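A student in our group prepared the protein record below, which I am reviewing. What it holds is a sequence and that sequence's fold in token form. My question to you is simply how this chain folds and whether the tokens agree. Do not assume that whoever made the record got everything right. I have pasted the whole thing underneath without changing anything:
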Amino acid sequence: MPWYVFALVDAPPRGAKGKGLSGTLGLRRVPGAYAVVERRADVPPAEFGSLQRHQDVVAQLAGRVGAILPVRFGTLLDDEGIDEALAERGDEIAEALESVRDRVQFTWRRPLSRSARRASKPVLKEELSGGEYLRRAAKAAKPVPPPRWRPLRAKLAPLVASERYQPATATSPESLYHLVARDSAIRYATLAAALRHADARLSMTGPWPPFAFAAGVL
């Protein structure tokens, strides 16, 4: 039976094994980490209850380890699949774990205005030169927050260890993710509350496990 993977962690979680979506959690040694897994025959439906349970399991694990890399919902692999996905990536995974050690994520969201949506409409590839297309592709791979985020970023910068920005899509608002030391989380949240009060368009949630800083780990 395949493994449903919740996260990669730096060490065995403290305390009891705990429960996954429906069964007991287990550990599988992988290069540079441990995979927290559950035996499962199929991928659960992408419904709110399953998504929430997956997130709850990861959040509980985060409080029991020093470093965690959450794995996206629905990752179901057999032994061979896990080995193939993580082979020769031990140094990469260890480095990723170190980057999130004792840190938590805060998530900012801002609805994109109609005018901004029009301004962000992508240019067709055939309208671009080869060099311009490559430059835009590189920028899209690591997007930079637009100027409207500058005041917030400047005020929070002393507490931010790392930052990720996600432009708005047709179904979700633009998002800014901050990785913050766990012992600075209360200070960050206090400052964030004042910033939210000053701009009603902004919303902030957290602290969370570092979901946005583990993309592509598995």
About this structure: Confidence is low (pLDDT under 50) at residues 131-139. DSSP finds seven helices and nine strands in the chain. Helices lie at 48-62, 79-86, 90-100, 114-119, 130-141, 150-156, 185-198. Residues 3-100 form one domain.
